[in-house]
Amino acid sequence: MALKDSFRTEAIVLPPKWGVYGKHGSGKSTLALSSGKKTVVLNTDNGIEEVMQQTKGDIWVQDFIPEVKEAKGANQVSHEANSKLWLSLLDTLRDLAREKHDREVLVIDSLDAADTLAHSHSCHELGVAAIDEVGFGKGWGRLRGNMQVLLNALSYLNREKQMEIIVVGHAHVRQVKDPTMESFDSFTLKLNKHSAQDVPEWLDALLFLAYKSIVQSTDAGFGRKDKREINTGERVLYTGGTSGAETKNRFNLPPEMIADYNELHRFIDESRTSMKEAA
User: Fold this and answer.
1) Which residues on neighbouring strands pair with residue 205, listed in sequence order?
2) Are 19 and 198 in contact (CB under 8 A)?
3) What angle in degrees, to the nearest 10, is found between the helix axes of 195-202 and 138-160?
4) What is the pTM of this model?
5) Strand pairing of 17-22 and 164-176?
């Protein structure tokens, strides 16, 4: 066999793996569940019930809501209970990988709540109450490994079962240190420090969802202008090119677009078609 025959020369076309995140109430779950396709939801955040009542579609749901326990007047995470939930979530992914089914889309809502389960499972495995109790960063290393198991399972479903993967997350403000410019605050995924780096790298697109706003100026007299931010009520996706939120995409999406599932897929399809024609 010639050396060339051991290589492939064409791209493998897979359904997209994308994430949407933003502040609470911005419509993240609504967007993720609006495909109208046969969907399975791993519900870790207990925030989809109202959305499901308003959404048309064939949706399967399994619940993996992190548990807390009352301890000395404060809520604390129950590591043992959450460890069992984490293992159950992974079992569900294995079932989807092994069994025949007609599901086209898999949604995790939310990824940060799944991260909480992975955190508890890591602590339970190590027999500690807090992950920092394990020295030399080994606790964080265990958590990173457990989250990689999740990402690998999702990659398998994407590749072998041709499932579109959508992860929903909440926004967290973090200081970004970039050696090419001054440090600045930016919205990022609310995840542990390792997954906050690993997940965006793994995704084909990380999109920030927010209500569009405009700045309106009014005459306050004596030559002064008062400015205030006005919410237009229009939900938009930011796909890249903004320092205010961490975003990326591999589909040549416009920097800003309407928050609509069908419109997003139209741009993805156009991008893939244009790249194929150019090749």
Assistant:
1) 18, 249
2) no
3) 20
4) 0.90
5) parallel
